[in-house]
Design goal:
This protein is of the alpha/beta class and 312 residues long. The protein contains 14 helices and ten strands. It folds into two domains: 240 residues, Malonyl-Coenzyme A Acyl Carrier Protein, domain 2; 59 residues, Malonyl-CoA ACP transacylase, ACP-binding (Alpha-Beta Plaits). Strands 8-7-2-1-9-10 form a six-stranded mixed beta sheet, sandwiched between helices. Helix 4 packs parallel to helix 5 and helix 4 runs antiparallel to helix 6.
Length: 312
């Protein structure tokens, strides 16, 4: 079984969308999305610098657009399950048929603006801790007033809080942590600092037309499979101020029988985690269109009769 996953904020890099816009029809498609949401996605994905695309209101729609564009380039196939990390959950909701592409992009535009506004209240940020045991790391973070906002598995927890709290963490690492690495994000996402964004996002969600997932959809809240579109959207709203449990998403994917994982553009982060936390699972990151042939081959292998028999 193959699971299709979408990365979260921080995965973006300057110019990462450039080669994807060279695919047939891609530039026109992105232009239409840009007009619909009032944001020049092509400009930000090809010409803007790292600081500019770090802006939450820009990064989030850009990531969802890139995920949708790269996934569609894979061709017509049905993954065994889908999941997304943080804002990638909206991309995954589109993969599962819960939201159509236009709704997903409109919703993420609202999300990005609301979270940017919440982040502007206090100078906050996030930092990845590499190494260390959760039983030691989490109490240390709480002692510093930080939140374990992303529990990613494979020895990685992302802390979130004020700039002062992040600076204190850099100077006072938990035992066993090899490195504290500040992330390219502009706020303490998935913490109480994002609570002001929840109400506005909830209002926007009321206007969405949703469908139940056509494939298993794994939620960041608890890693569980969500079976109704209404529940998916409710979780998308609440997840803004609650921790991401990517570790539990991977555990569920393994229980479902996952043998392969493809991460859509800008791929790499989730594949890196999966290589450590999901031994035996074949992984592939879509970074440029040059990766499409290998991805299509992996899809064909996992959907062949021989693969079905092996998973039975």
């Amino acid at each position: 079984m193959l699971v299709l996953v979408a990365p979260g904020q921080g995965a973006q890099t300057p110019g990462f969308l450039t080669p994807w816009l060279e695919l047939p029809g891609a530039a026109d498609r992105v232009a239409a999305w840009s007009d619909a949401i009032g944001l020049d996605l092509a400009h930000y994905g090809t010409k803007a610098d790292a600081d500019t695309i770090r802006d939450t209101a820009v990064a989030q729609p850009l990531l969802v657009a890139a995920g949708l564009l790269s996934a569609s380039a894979l061709g017509d196939f049905v993954p065994g399950a889908v999941a997304g990390h943080s804002v990638g959950e909206i991309t995954a909701a589109a993969f599962a048929g819960v939201l159509d592409e236009a709704s997903a992009l409109g919703f993420v535009r609202t999300r990005g603006l609301a979270m940017a506004e919440a982040a502007a209240v206090t100078e906050t940020g996030m930092a990845a801790l590499l190494g260390g045991d959760p039983g030691t790391v989490v109490p240390h973070l709480e002692k510093l007033g930080l939140t374990p906002a992303n529990v990613n598995g494979a020895g990685q927890i992302v802390a979130a809080g004020t700039a002062e709290q992040i600076a204190a963490l850099v100077d006072d690492k938990p035992d066993g942590v090899r490195r504290v690495m500040p992330l390219k994000v502009a706020g303490a996402f998935h913490t109480h600092h994002m609570a002001p964004a929840v109400a506005g996002l909830g209002r926007a969600a009321q206007d969405l037309v949703v469908a139940d997932p056509a494939v298993p959809y794994l939620s960041n809240a608890d890693g569980e499979v969500v079976t109704t579109g209404a529940d998916v959207v409710a979780r998308l709203v609440n997840q803004v101020s609650n921790p991401v449990r990517w570790d539990l998403c991977m555990e569920t994917a393994l229980k479902l029988g996952t043998t392969a994982l493809i991460e859509v553009c800008p791929g790499g982060t989730l594949v890196g985690i999966a290589k450590r936390a999901m031994p035996g699972v074949r992984t592939l990151a879509l970074k440029t269109p040059d990766d499409l042939d290998a991805a299509r081959a992996l899809i064909a292998e996992t959907q062949s009769p021989a693969a079905d028999a092996a998973g039975a």
